[in-house]
Amino acid sequence: MAKATKSFSCTACGASFNKWSGRCDGCGAWNTIVEDTPLSTGPASKSLGNKRGSGILLTDLSTEEAPPPRTHSGMDELDRVLGGGLVPASAILVGGDPGIGKSTLLLQAAARFSQAGLKTLYVSGEEASAQVRMRARRLGLGDAPVQLAAATNLRDILTTLETEQPQLVIIDSIQTMWADNVESAPGSVSQVRAAAHELTSFAKRKGVSVILVGHVTKDGQIAGPRVVEHMVDTVLYFEGERGHQFRILRAVKNRFGPADEIGVFEMTGSGLAEVTNPSALFLSERGEPSPGSVVFSGIEGTRPVLVEFQALVAPSPHAQARRSVVGWDGGRLAMILAVLEARCGIPFAGLDVYLNVAGGMKVQEPAADLAVAAALLSAREDAALPAECVVFGEISLSGALRPVGQTENRLKEAQKLGFSTAIAPTGGKAVGGNSLSLRQFGDLTEFVGDIFGA
Ligand code: TYD
Ligand code: MG
Questions:
Q1: Of 19, 215, 268, 412, which residue is 20 to 30 A from 399 by alpha carbon distance?
Q2: Which ligand 1 atom is at minimum distance from the Cα of 138?
Q3: Phi first, then psi: what are they for 127, rounded to 5°?
Q4: CA–CA separation, 359 vs 243, rounded Å?
Q5: Residue 433 lies in a domain
């Protein structure tokens, strides 16, 4: 028998090494390399199919083996983020800050899926079954046919799964799970990885869907090894600001649907309510048109969403002016400031710049460039944009405005919400059938001159 050798891996990127070092050669992170504990050689190490070590020709796969259809929970916001319902035998990771509402969401989802006919088991490692039942009753789900279990020992859970044979199992949370063949504390990297591995491979073998809840660390990553993200089919993040009641479920990886899809919920006294018109919600706190405020018509996944950008520009009392941004990329803000200065001759030196996406929404699209530039200029010039106006478009380093995808959907959503004007790059798909007045510009200088008279 070969001598057991130690192995090490990086908790940030998952690279493997045969000796420890302070810095990972794979991703350059410091103090992320830990010793691996060998996984069990028990049932979980069996291969997935029954034909071990042989391949199957793609053309030999008969259509009878096509996967059974997806199950819909009936919560449209959740079903859409999953890519159109729950895929059988899929593994899903739901990450989020403590207290954001993960347990609430998944208990509601468990109830809905069980009512839709899936045999569902909800395993809580954090609360006793009685507490979960109490919560369910408070959420008005007391009569849903969900099975509850309070357990943290992985062996016990796998045994329960063998005997109960559910079709969907929810593990809340993966950090509380504990494999007795791994010699480290629950929540440690090796425990989380071992538990995730055992559960996902069990799920694939038995055709069970598994949803793992994962806590997120201060810097926003799912606590435990990144490799858990590689093990599952779908990674969802449940996000939200503490001061706001709405929550966003975002698909960051999905083997069965589009990534970047979002579902919007509102935390109420009786659990999470679906928000079917997020644009109306994000714009609900908007008052009269004011300098620095610009509405951006964005696309999140497959759906248009309007959000408000707010900017504040003020003389800086500091030697080095501040650049502060919430809900948008800081690097991208620096780029837009540089383009405004270099191409339009509008300096921001000596001015503090604050940029915020209202309502705690995070925007990632470059299509928001023009809205950001408009907000910055509007704040700097102390001039509000025309009322009822949406803005979108990408800015290139040359100062040219580039058309962005889904122009039509962006305009439709703006019109639906009562906007009358849209500012967009020239080009883009010709748009018909709406009554918005469209003002198009080919480059940033032209836009600045026309809108701000600068
Ligand atoms: P929870 O689902 O326990 O969060 P997580 O599992 O992500 O840690 O949610 C906890 C918060 O949600 C708590 O602060 C109270 C709030 N909440 C409501 O506002 N209404 C409700 O109906 C429920 C169940 C929770
Ligand atoms: Mg919880």
A1: 412
A2: 22
A3: -125, 155
A4: 9
A5: yes
Q: Model-level pTM?
A: 0.79
For residue 60, being part of any structural domain is answered with no
Looking at the structure of the chain, the number of domains it has is 3
Q: What is the ipTM of this complex?
A: 0.96
In terms of domains, do 286 and 270 share one? Answer: no
Summarize pLDDT for 140-196 with one digit per residue, the tens.
Answer: 998 899 999 999 999 999 999 989 899 999 999 898 998 888 888 887 888 888 899
Q: How far is the CA of 149 from the centre of ligand 2 (A)?
A: 14
421-425 and 437-441: which strand pairing?
parallel
Cα distances (angstroms) measured from residue 311 to each of 178, 286, 327: 47, 14, 12
295 lies in the same domain as 264: no
Q: Is the predicted pLDDT of residue 436 greater than 90, yes or no?
A: no
User: Which listed ligand is nearest to 125 at the C-alpha?
Assistant: 2
Instruction: Please name which of 256, 321, 303, 205 lies closest in space to residue 83, comparing C-alpha atoms.
Output: 256
Report in angstroms the alpha-carbon separations of 384 from 281, 289, 326, 380, 451.
Answer: 22, 6, 21, 10, 10
pLDDT tens readout for residues 186-239: 878 888 888 999 999 998 898 999 999 998 776 666 666 677 888 999 999 998
What is d(CA 360, CA 338) in angstroms, rounded to the nearest whole number? Answer: 26
- Structural domain including 302 reads 281-452
Q: Which residues are annotated as a binding site for ATP?
A: 96-103
Residue 103 CA, ligand 1 centroid: distance in Å: 7
| Chain-centroid distance, C-alpha 62 | 35
Place of tokens 């916001």: 77
Query: Does some domain include residue 42?
Result: no
235/286 same-domain check? no
Q: State in Å: Cα 269 to ligand 1 middle.
A: 9
From 104, 107, 127, mutation site for ligand 1 pocket: most ligand atoms within 8 A of C-beta: 104
For residue 320, the domain's CATH number is 3.30.230.10
**Is there a single domain that holds both residue 286 and residue 167?**
no
Beta bridge partners of residue 326, listed in sequence order: 356
Angle at 431 (CA atoms; ends 443, 411), nearest 5 degrees: 80
238 - beta bridge partners? 96, 249
- Between CA 85 and CA 206 the distance in angstroms is 19
Question: Does residue 392 share a domain with residue 342?
Answer: yes
3-state DSSP assignment of residue 122: strand
Backbone φ and ψ for 208, nearest 5 degrees, come out as -100, 140
Q: Would you state the structure tokens that stand for residue 79, as one six-digit string? A: 């079903």
Instruction: For residue 56, tell me if it sits in a domain.
Output: no
- Spatial contact of 283 and 295, defined as CB atoms under 8 Å apart: yes
**Count of CB atoms situated within 10 Å of the CB of 80:** 20
Beta-bridge partners for 216: 222
CA atoms within 13 A on the CB side of 199: 37
